[in-house]
Amino acid sequence: QVQLVESGGGLVQPGGSLRLSCAATGSIFSITAMGWYRQAPGKQRELVATVTGGGTTNYADSVKGRFTISRDNAKNTVDLQMNSLKPDDTAVYYCTAKVVQYTKRTYDFWGQGTQVTVSS
What we know:
The protein is mainly β. The protein has no helices and eleven strands.
């Protein structure tokens, strides 16, 4: 099995910064992609940012220029640096990883989520 553990959420004022981290452990042969999604109350879960093993990134339009995703392939970790935070960024943030296990089968795994609240 694979576990994703997130950290770094919290309360921040508008315009502030937070850094989220996620570590994947367990039965991992390789990870093809890692990323972050978020879900605000009453809304569907939405993509925030993803990064491939080769470093190709993809961002939601709403976070481009403010958020930066980075990955350490050797440690199976992914971080999300969030700057210039807005109240609309308030949500539970979920880490996800597309994991190739030793069986050579690929599965999507999710973390438990970490709350980010942007408020004055």
